[in-house]
Amino acid sequence: MSAEEDTPLIEDSDDRELSDEERVRVMLNALQSPQLIIRSTATNQLVELGKRRPDLALDPLIKALDDDFWAVKFGAAEALGEIGNPKAVPPLVEHMLQDEDPDFRAKIAEQLGILGSKDAIPGLIKALKDDFSETRENAAKSLGMLKAEQAVDALNELLLKDPSPYVRRQIAWALGEIGDNKSVSFLIKALKDKDGVTREKAAEALGKIKDPQAIVPLASSLGDSRPETHLAIVTALSQFDAATIVKSVLETFGKEKLFDAIGILRKISFNIEQEELNREVRRIMDPIITKYQTKLKKHTSILKTAEAFLADSLAELKNIRAALEQLPPDVAEQRRILKQHYDKVDELIAHSVDLGTKVASLSFTEFTQVPWIKEELFFDLDRVQRMKKELSTKFTEFREICRNIQAQIKEKEKELTTE
After folding, report:
1. Partner of 53 at 20 to 30 A CA spacing, among 9, 23, 240, 338?
2. Spatial distance between the Cα atoms of 48 and 55, rounded to a whole number of angstroms
3. What residues contact residue 318 under an 8 Å CB cut-off, 6+ apart?
């Protein structure tokens, strides 16, 4: 059949109803129409005929795969896929692997999945090596639709090396549909694919397969900047129950990395709505937080002791200043009082140095080096750190006041000597 033939698209039937044989011929002829709506109607009619009378429709449609006019062979391929008769698989596969038109090969790869026969699987696996990326993409999709377990190894390998992101996306989807655990490690690697949609499809696939070894890699990818990918990761993690999540994370990190495990568990619990998981995470985390709160209270106690010292000492310095303004007339008594106050200020300076050193040595590294501990203690930690900073400034100011008072005492002693 050719586009140049003079066969009319619609035959004059003298108002009689066409036989099925005539309808097949007319509809195949109609596939040559330049009008899309006519070609689409003809395809639908051929599908209906093929399902009802495969004995009449299949052979002409298979023959039409060799037609010179693209619309005819594309329409035939589409009809054969929709009809779903396994008899069409061998000729379709032959054309998919050998036809010179890459678009036609891609069309057939798509229709074989719709046809639904597992007989097409070996040919579709071969089509994964086609030079035309759309053929590989459609072959992967069809293999997923057919849940082709025998294609897993080929799909796994191609997922990590195919240059086309569209192919990698479809492979990730297909592997999720097939659901073989052998794909988990490959899909985990695909969570770091440079293409965001591929990462999304990999996460979706891991959620379908539900292998616990994917939990930690999924959780580690929760920071994905692409919202759709982040949502896919959250949805995938939501497929696991709390007990599975906790067990998998703790086993992955081991006892020596418990804090890292808790960090991951905490991140997961913040992103998925599971009350049981929240309770489990708190059960593991709270005893550790309590220990750190106790350590922080010891820091607070030291700071409060220093704060009380400064308050009492500043009051004492105020009294010393007042006394310096009301010295008795007796010179000897004045010298005694001045020395007494000087020594007292010396004592306060020494004590402030000791306490100031203690305050300065307070370290908060252990509270801040683990992110989740820092977050849990944030408000208390911030308060205590600010308290330390303020006290460090106050100690500096306090010693300056002390030195000023001692200078004042020395000046008064000098005046007494002059007199």
Report:
1. 9
2. 13
3. none
- 115, 105, 114: which is closest to 137 by C-alpha? 105
Q: What angle do CA 355, 361, 365 make, to 5 degrees?
A: 145
Task: Give the type of residue at 336.
Answer: R
In the chain the domains, ranked by start, together with CATH numbers, are 150-273 (1.25.10.10), 286-418 (1.20.58)
Query: What is d(CA 317, CA 335) in angstroms, rounded to the nearest whole number?
Result: 18
Distances (CA, A) of 312 to 309, 326, 332, 350, 389: 5, 22, 29, 15, 20
CB neighbour list of residue 207: distance below 8 Å, 6 or more residues apart: 176, 232, 235, 236, 237, 238, 239
Number of residues written out for the chain: 419
The two tokens of residue 157 are 């390998």
Give ∠ CA 391-396-399 in degrees, rounded to 5.
120
**Each residue's pLDDT tens digit in the chain (419 positions)?**
444 444 444 444 455 688 888 888 888 888 888 888 888 888 888 888 888 888 888 888 898 899 888 888 899 899 999 999 999 999 999 999 999 999 999 999 999 999 999 999 999 999 999 999 999 999 999 999 999 999 999 999 999 999 999 999 999 999 999 999 999 999 999 999 999 999 999 999 999 999 999 999 999 999 999 999 999 999 999 999 999 999 999 999 999 999 999 999 999 999 998 999 999 999 999 999 999 999 999 999 999 999 999 999 999 999 999 999 999 999 899 999 999 999 999 999 999 999 999 999 999 999 999 999 999 999 999 999 999 999 999 999 999 999 999 999 999 988 888 76
Query: Which residues neighbour 397 within 8 Å (Cβ) at sequence distance 6 or greater?
Result: none
Q: What is the pTM for the complete model shown?
A: 0.80
Query: Phi and psi of 230, rounded to 5°?
Result: -60, -45
